């Protein structure tokens, strides 16, 4: 049976559903309708139903959604019901911030190692993880069954390191470097451009100001 192609827009909304459902569980809510979820998330009820229908629906007419069940199903769809071993390439401020963010482990992403080329950073211990030299990269990946690598390095170094990661068997790269990586088919890249996000925010702020009515003097 051919697997249904799910749009990127739908996939991008799943983590948000997961977060809101987690909050509902903490509040002790057992079931919720698409209309009630819509009011919380500011997404139309029809959009919620359409998104979830891509994966089977999960709701019952007149009942709504079982919150815990839907939460666990979305975790399964996102693949965060299993452990993913991760390494960080670049132990500067951003790399250390990622390593110190404990919430990743709650989502199944376990940071197994950190790497850098700076002798001043090699040997540093961050949340129990020792920063290693990039010379050990390939061996460490194979020995520790690493699936994901986060790149928090300058863009000039990123293509070379990305190629080494691919050659070592990495299948997913979380790319914070300010450059687009060229990787073979079968390797997934998620680009995180912080400056672009800030520029989008700037645009929205400026647009908001442009739309404000002129103040009466």
UniProtKB/TrEMBL annotation:
GO terms for biological process: negative regulation of DNA-templated transcription; response to redox state. The keyword Cytoplasm applies. Residues 79-180 form the CoA-binding domain. NAD(+) binds at residues 90-95. GO terms for molecular function: DNA binding; DNA-binding transcription factor activity. It holds the Pfam family Put_DNA-bind_N. Keywords: Cytoplasm, DNA-binding, NAD, Repressor, Transcription, Transcription regulation. Modulates transcription in response to changes in cellular NADH/NAD(+) redox state. Homodimer. This is Redox-sensing transcriptional repressor Rex. The gene is rex.
